[in-house]
C-alpha cells in the first residue's frame, strides 16, 4: 500500500493560537483564556491539546485557546482520490466525496456489520459497569466512614474506667472458665444408675391406681398399705430379695441399654441424659393414662399415632381427672431440662469419648478416639436391638436369661404383662412382631386340598339357599362401647337405658358378642368383623393387626370385596366421624379396597358433625345421616353397596356432657364409688341416646325401596366398671357386648330371626356367615368354613376366660350357653376345624396366599 504523508506534518508546528474558521459544520469549545500563558504540564493535562514536537522553549502565547469539533468528516489535503479514507465507524468512503463548497456529499446506505450493530450494546455494558463500580466505591466509602465512627465511639466507650474494670473482670472469668473442671466418669456412672432406677420405678408406679373401699367394709391398715400404689411398687422392687425374682433388674437392663445408646450415639452425656429423662417421663405419663382409660399399656404399634400426626387427637382423650398429673409432669420435665442443660454448660468435658473430626489423623490420640467413637455408637445400637429382639424370641439367650431372673411373659394380656414385668420390658418384647408361626403341614398341596374340601361344603350349604349376599346393601355398624350396663354385676337402674334396641333384638337375629377388649381394642374387633380372621390364631406379640400387620400386606382380603367384585370399586365406602389416620384406617381401608373413607379430616370431609349438648364427639344421629346420604346417591341404581360405619359418640372419657341426665337418679347400684357412679351415669345416658337414634335410623331405612341389611354391634365395654373388674369371675361378662342383624321391609329376609340357640353367643369374625344365614344367601368356601366353625365354636377370642381357656389363657372359646369350652371336650372334628382355620389365616396374612387363585373367597 502506498504511503501517504499527512499535510499536518509538512511544516513545523505552530505555537500560536489558530484563528477561528468560518465553518458551520462544527462547534468551538474554549480551552483557555486568551491572555493565559500555558506550560507543558497544562498541555499534558488536556486530552485535546495540540501535538507539540518542538524541543525549544514554549512560546509565551498559547496556541490552545479553543478546539473545533466537526460534525462531519472533512477532506484531508494531498490525498489521492483513489485512496479510501476510514471513518470512525470502520467503513471506507471515497476521498472525493466532498463537494466543492466543502459540503459533505450524501453517502449511499451501507449495511452495518455485526461489530457495528453490537457496538452500542458493548458501550451500554461498559457504562453500566462504570456506574456499578462507582456505586460500589460510594457504598464502600460510606461503610468505611461509618465503621471509623463506630470504632471511635467504641474506643471512647472502653476508655472509661468503669468499662475497663468490667472488661478486666470478664477476662479473668474467661480464664477461669477455660480451666473449669471436667466431671469424672464416676460421677457420670452415679447419675446413670440413679436416673435409670428412677425411671423404672416411675413406669411401674403408673401401672397401679389407689384402691377404693366401701365405707361399710372394714380394711386393716396393713392391707391398705400393701394394696396402695406405694405398697405395690415396693413389692415389685422387693421381689429381688423376698422372692428371688429379679424382674426389676430385667427392666433396668432394658432402660440402661437405651440410655447407653443415646450417650454413645450423641457422644454427649448431658444431652443424652436430657433426652432420656424427658422421653421416659413422657412415656410413663402416657402409659399411666392409657392404662386408666383403656386397661392396656403403650405398645410399639402406638407410635404410629405420632408418626401419623394424631398427637392432638390422643390428647383429646386425656380425662380431666388426669390433667393435674399431666401438669405436674410438665413442670418436672421443665426443671429437669434446666438442670441437665446447666450441668452440660458447667461440665468441661464436651465429649464423652475423645474424638476429632476436623483433624482425624493428626495424631495417634485422634485416630484411636475416632475409631472408638464409631465402634461404641454402632455396638450400643446393635446391643439394644439384640436385647429387644431376644425378649420376644423364645429360646434365645436373652429370653433364657430373662426367664432365669423371673421374667414370665403373658403378651396375650398386655396389661397383666406390664404389671408383672414393667411397661419397659413389655414394650421392648413387642418390638419384634411375628404374626403367626408356620404350620407344619403348610404347602400349596395342602391348601389346594383344603380349598376342595370347603368348596364341597359350600355346595352342600348352598343347595338350600336361594339368595345372594349382594342382593342386599349391607351396612356394618360398629357402635363405640355399646353394651347393656344392666348386665354388669353390681350395676342396676330403675329405667331401661336401651328399650328400642332390646325390642329389636327380640324380633330379629341377635345375641351377645365375645369381645377381645375391655376399655379398648376397637380396631381389633373391627378387623375380625371385616376379615373373618381371629386374634386367637395369631402369636402373642401381634396385639393390633391394624397397626402391626395390615399396612405390610400386599392384598389383604375383606368381605366388602364381595360387593366390589360384582358392582365395581365404588360399591364399598366407609365412614368414621374422627381422624382418618386413627389406627391407620386411611391406609388399611385403602388396602381393603374401600373406594373412600369419609372422616372429619378427609379430603372430602363429613358434612354432618354435630354433637349432643357438651359432648366433644359427633353424635350417632349425625353419623347415621352420613350413611343415609350415601344411600341416597344410589337410590336410583339397581346395584347394592357395602357400607362401613364406626361411631364415636360414646367414646371415653366421660365428662359432664349431657343435660337432664335422668339416669343419675335412676342408678340404684350399690357399693360403687362416687367416681365410678359418675362415669356409669354419663355413659348410660350416652347409650340411651344411641338407642333412640338407632331406632330412628332403622325406621328411615324401612321406608326405602332397596333391600338393606344392618349388622349392628358394640365393640367392647367401657373401662369404667372398677368394682366388677376386681372380681375374677366377671372377666368373661366384661367382654360381652350386644349385636343384632336386621333387614328392612324391602328385603326378602325382613323379620327373619335365626335360631337363638346358635346366635346367642358369637364373635365378630362370624358376623358375615351369620348375615348370610340371616339373608338365606349362598356362601363361598371361606364362609362355609366359618359357618362350620361357628357351630363348633360359637364364640372365640383372645380373652382370659374364667377357667383359663385354651392355650394357657391366650384364647377363649365359648359354647352356645356362654361357657368355656375345655380342651378335653374338643371333638376330632373341632380340632380339625381349628387346624384348617389356622392354615387359612396363615395363608391370607403372612403365607404365600395360595387360596387367592383357588376361588376360596368367591361367592357363587
Helix content: 40-55%
Q: Tell me the fraction of residues in β-strands, as a range.
A: 5-15%
Please give the alpha-carbon distance between the first and last residues: 108 Å
- What Rg do the Cα atoms give? 46 Å
Supply the helix-strand structural class: alpha/beta
Q: Roughly what is the average pLDDT, rounded to an integer? A: 83
The number of distinct β-strands equals 14
Query: Spans of 5+ residues with little confidence (pLDDT < 50)?
Result: 45-65, 72-103, 801-809
Counting DSSP H or I runs of 4 or more residues, the number of helices is 29
The biggest sheet, with number of strands, parallel, antiparallel or mixed sense and barrel status, is: 8 strands, mixed
Strands of the widest sheet, in order across it, are 8-7-9-5-10-11-6-12
Shape category: globular
Quaternary structure state of the chains depicted: single chain
